[in-house]
Amino acid sequence: MERTLIGDLRNHLDQAVMVKGWLHVLRDQKKIQFIVLRDVSGMVQITHWKPNDEKLAELISTLTTESALRVTGKVIDNPQVKLGGLEIQLESLAVENLAETPLPFEPFGEAENLPALDYRLDWRFMDLRRTENLLLFKVQTTMEMALREFWTQRGYIEMHSPKLMGSPSESGAELFELNYFETKAYLAQSPQFYKQMAMAAGFEGVFEIGPVFRADPSFTSRHMTEFTSIDLEISWIESEEDVMSNQERMLQYAFQRVKDAHGDQIKKVFGLDLEVPQVPFPRVPMAESHKILKEVGYQLPPEKKNDLDPGAERALGEYIKQKTGSDFVFITDWPFAVRPFYHMKKGDSLTHSFDLLANGLEITTGAQREHRYEVLLAQAREKGLTPEPIQFYLDFFRYGCPPHGGYGLGLSRLLMVMLKLTNIRETVYLFRGPNRLQP
Q1: Is the separation of the CB atoms in 307 and 286 below 8 Å?
Q2: SS3 content of the chain, % helix, strand, coil (to 5)
Q3: d(CA 118, CA 427)
Q4: Quick one: which of 66, 68, 333, 388 has the fewest CB in 10 Å?
Q5: Is residue 425 a contact partner of residue 117, using CB atoms and an 8 Å limit?
Q6: CB 390 within 8 A of CB 114
Q7: pLDDT higher than threshold 70 for residue 171
Q8: Which residues, listed in sequence order, are joined to residue 97 by a DSSP beta bridge?
Q9: Global pTM?
C-alpha cells in the first residue's frame, strides 16, 4: 500500500490508507484511544476501540509524543471531528522510531512557554517541527521559485559562482581566510566580480541564489556570518533606475506568488494579512533622507554623516510608511565615500547607487557599475586599492563591456520583511554567527 498524505485524505473516503507521521497528541481513555498524527501536509485523528485489539491498545499506551509512526486504517467522514471533519479507524500501527522522553522542549506549546531562541537553536531539528517554521520554509520555497520564474521569463541565465577566491571579492574587511594548498584563499563575500564577468561575457542578464560569507563579529538580530544571497546583474541599462525598476517588479511578483499559494495559512499561523507591494516604490536621495531625519528629530552619529545607521533606517521607514503607505523605499545617490570602487560616480562625490529599505530594514544594495576600464582603475586607486590583486577583474573591462548594473539582497532578510519577523535567526534553516557553528 502506498503512503497517502494527510492533506489528501478527503479524496480517500471509505478507503483503506497508509499514513506516516509524528504522534502529535495521544488521548488514552478507558474504552477508546485517539491519536492525532501529523505530517508535512496536516494532522488527522486516528481512532481505536480498545476491545477490538487489546494488544494493539497496549502498544498505543506506551507511545510517546513525537514518535514516528506508520498507520493503516479506513478513512471515515465525521463532521464532529475538528481536524478536517474526518478520521481514520485504526487497523494497524508500526513504530518507526520511539521518541525519548522527556523531549528537549515541547515544540507545540504556547509561544510564551517556548525556551529561549538560543536553546531552541541547539535543538534546531525539533524547533523546525513547529507549524510556524514549516510554513516559513514552504514560503521560502515558493518565493525562490517565483524569483526564478520572474528572471527566466526575461531570458536571464542562472549562474553559480565560486565561493573560493584567490583575492578579496570587495574590500579587505570581513574576510574568512583559509589555507588553500600552498597559498591562501578567501570565502566569497559576494558574487559581485563574477556577475560582472558575465556581463563582459555577453550574457546580458544573470542571477544567482547562493551562499556568501562575512567575517562580521556582529551579534545583532539581522546579521549572519553565512547567508544566502539573491543576486542579479543586467546589461545595457541607462541608469540605476532600470535596476530599481527591475527589483521592485520582481518583489511584487514574488509577494503575489507567495500570497496566492500561502496567504490563508500565513494569516492563520502568523496573524498576518500578506500585503503585495505597489510599484513604483518611493525614491528618496540620500541628501533628502538626511533632511527627513532632522525633521523627525533623529540624530545620526558623526561617523555616519555620509551614511545611515539602523536607527535612521527605521526612522525613514516609519516616515515613508506614514507619508506614502509603502513598506519599501529606495535611498538613492549615495556618496562615493561609502560605496565600493566599482560603483559608477554621479558627478564628483555621489554614485549611481541605492539601498532598498523594507519595514525600516536595509535589505538591498544596488547600483550601476563602472564599466570603463580607465575610470574603474582610477576609482580603485582612489579607494587605496592596488591593481595587482584584482587585475583579473579589471581585465573584464578591457575588451568591450556594456553598461550594466545589479543588486544583491539577503534571502533571510527578505523573509523577515515578508512575514514581519524580528530576528534573522528565525528565518534561516541553520544559523551561523560568531559563536555558533553547531548543529
Answers
A1: no
A2: 35, 30, 35
A3: 14
A4: 388
A5: yes
A6: no
A7: no
A8: 68
A9: 0.93
